[in-house]
Amino acid sequence: MADSKSIAVLNLGSQRLSGALFSKSGGDLVLKKYEFVDMAGDPTVDATRIAQLKVSLQELAARLKLKSSAVWYAVAGHTVFSRFVKLPPVQGDRVAQIVEFEARQNVPFPINEVVWDYEFSSEGGIETEVVLVAMKSDALDEIDDQVALAKIATAGVDVAPLALFNAFRYSYPDVDEPAVLIDLGARSTNMLFVEEGRFFIRNFLVGGASITSAIAKEFGIGFAEAETQKIHRGFVAPGGAVQDHEDPEIAALSKVIRNAASNLHTQIMRTITFYRSQQGGSQPKRVFITGGGALLGNMVSFLEEKLKLPVEIFNPLRGVQVDRSLKADVAAADAPFLAELVGLALRSSGGVPCEVELVPTKVANARDAARRMPILIVGMLLFWAALGTGVFYFQNTERVVREKLAGMSSENARLKNLATQIAALEQRQGQYSALSQQLEQAVAERSFWVRLLTDLNAKFENDMIWLTLVEPLKNGNSITPQLLSQESSSGEKKDEATAGSAPAYSLRLQGLYRKNDEGEQIVYKYASALAKLPWFEIADFDDKRAQYVSAQSGVEEDRYAYTFKIELPLKQSMNFKD
Questions:
Q1: What is the phi/psi pair of residue 291, to 5°?
Q2: Where, residue-wise, is CATH 3.30.420.40 in the chain?
Q3: pTM for the whole thing?
Q4: Beta-carbon neighbour count of residue 192 at 10 Å?
Q5: Which CATH superfamily groups domain 7-359?
Q6: SS3 content of the chain, % helix, strand, coil (to 5)
């Protein structure tokens, strides 16, 4: 794993992958280590691109010991759509809205299928210009997946031409005249125009692979062999009346390279013309070249000849210190391959003029999660606090419930004891009630005769009637001591006849009435008055009075009084003792 203080960067070129470790020393960049891994085959063939990228990234990560390191890496310019757009004069808070509108109009893909960003390319004039860069999301995610498979974390993704621009501004702050930086890559060429207050980039698909393909076609050899011939023996043949190389094969190779390079020159001139005519740019005064094509023999002389401008190889290490562990001359020779790496290192170490970033889906999700993390942490803390409060509340509630339950159990036991006592008292009360009923009955019976006799006396209207006998009867038998034995005997027989049924009580009245004008009717009137008293239960006395009353007729002249007998059934049952 790289040192935590190191700045790890990668440039994912079409044919060569480069990586480096930088550090900061007093505000300056320090190059500590770098490595290159070349991918075999034609870089214009996309079918094998991802598979080779996977293997090469793992090898490069192993050499630089980048496992678990967070890196900035750059994608090739030809894989990214770029467009320079002039904005109308608007307030700063509306710029983002206008840029998004322009992105939807200019990007040739649905905006939700791309990752895009923008940067101001010129400011301060009548019009503000921005550069839009966009890349298909699935294409970027596919590349980022290979980075992840190499056990490397993605810190950010830049675009190679814009990383080159940051490196140029850092390394050549003294260049104030219009200049063009030509990055001669394997599959394509990036041209970067820089002048005061603005920059412009354009990519065209002519590069080192075009020269290699021309060699392979001319000599009938494979692409890999043609690439080897170009690197080790090739150069651009000088123009004019110059003697050819003494080796005919090399001379022929150089001429093929010159012819192919002429196509490159044509594209360069077209781009310069486009910049001046369509973008209103200035004619470049200086030309810098970088990339693998810059090291091709006589390339500087060839371009000076064609462009009629001074051409020099761009040195991105001009403002970078080289660590003592590296050989300065070797690093200087490899400098054309390090330009994008320097620009990427600047992204990690501080502010740069251009801060375009393409964000893969996984990185966007991770950043979104990181932004939400404080909220999630606060939410989790609140959740656990609420949970703790709930647990405390329920524990406290359980304690209170248990205390209440214990109190209720104690109260229940006390009430059960009281219920037992109450039941015992109710039982005793029942016993006392039974006794009291007998006492109440005895009291009631004690006053019974007083009240009855009082009512009997109250019904006398005059002194014509006397009572000689008042006695109670049970089932027609007297319950008072009998003076006549025959009456007792007949009474016993009558009582036996009614044995087994409820006893019937009645009252017998015997007496005399004096001779009067009404005769025995005076007895019937008295009996009728008695029948209406509440002591007796007679509903139809007048119709059945003969059943209840018997009296002698007072017709004898020589008698002063006559006998009568009245027997009325009692309504109230009394426990008369025989």
A1: 90, 175
A2: 7-359
A3: 0.66
A4: 23
A5: ATPase, nucleotide binding domain (3.30.420.40)
A6: 50, 25, 30
